[in-house]
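input
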Amino acid sequence: MNNSLIATLMRLGPSSSEAIGRQLNVSQPTISRMLSVSANQVIRIGGSKNTIYAVPRKIRQLKDAIIPVFKVDELGVVTRFGELISVYPEGFLWEANQENWPAETPKKRYFNSLPYFIHNSSPQGFMGRNFARINCDALGVPEDLNRWSDDDALVAMAILGEDVPGNLILGETSYRRFTEQNHDIIKESELADSYLALAKMALSNGVAGSSAGGEFPKFTAIRENQNYPEGVAHVIVKFSGTGDTAHEQRWADLLRCEAYASEITNTHLNAMSAASAVITHGGRTFMESTRFDRVGMGGRRSMCSLSSLDAELVGSGDMNWEKLAEQLFKLKLIDENTAQTIRRVFYFGKLIGNSDMHNGNLSFGLSESGKLVLSPIYDMLPMRYAPQRGVELPELIQDSLYKPMPGYEDDYVLALKAALAFWVRVSLDSDVSSDFRDIAEKWVVQLENLGIYKGNKVRF
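output
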């Protein structure tokens, strides 16, 4: 009889005792006895009327179906955040020991895929594709990151996940790797040469289609910087090619634009952006951004993308930043000032030609009270003008501009002034190509023609 209980749970997935009883056509007292006898094979989660039962599912080279999840605070202190349990036939049980993402999320629940706050830390993008290519044999996962399942991502994070984005570490193995890390800190005097070497290393396994997909190749590093705790800064560095083709020059132009956008969102929109700097050396242009999920040598901060939050809390699938900010405000997950900041940054992005403001390019941290806190702005640049393989460089400015939602015209005006300041800066930068300075000048004319200096009114 107990074998039938296990088989039923493996087929059904996490279920209540009532659901199990209906499937086996037995009484609740019988189910209770069966569950008691099978206690070492069945996981119980929840309490009273909300209790569910499941059969743990061990994943390949992971030693156990129960994966401890650790949290690293800003001082580098590690605490146990919760446990992730893989179960049959698929999915995961999550049991939090501490404040969850966000506070309204139940501390004990079933997810049919990786919990959104954990999935957010899985390998992705340029560096994720290189990670998959380098470690696929050791991890027993596909070389192509696009073919990874949730199980593949969990294996990677639990075995080689000591330096994933955010402040969570999965599994004892990754935790040990975190505690035993030897950090290579780049001296200020060696920065440019070190970046050249790291760029070469990042490309050694192939670009994995990054430029064709509208994405910069990049690497992470730790460098000396006395403006940060412990005199070091964790950075993520994007870089251009070494050639002198028009396409490579355009990528260099865009890196400079990103640095300007970072500065202007801080000064004109009162929105924190990742601190950035441009370095040129050895024929490459580097754009260095300070990581906001790292503090000092070993401290970390939480982060979760708007895309992950949308999937869990809103479920829109395709809303833009402006509309999702409204939804999060209505759910009381962000305050009015945060919603306003997101609107302004979104309008600014539209007015500088950023065609890549997908919901993975905006993130939040979690406050001590369990509320969402907007992370510094990143990846803000005019991606409308990114080179595409096999075609000429994009040159035209937009014929029509994005219009704000009714009632938010003042936010739009502020963003428009910031965008004008951005394009003026780009148009005057002699290190930017003449072709792109021409584009910037056309944007200046277009934005000025909107009449933003006529009583703060905008003409559409």
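quick obs: The two ends are 73 Å apart (CA to CA).
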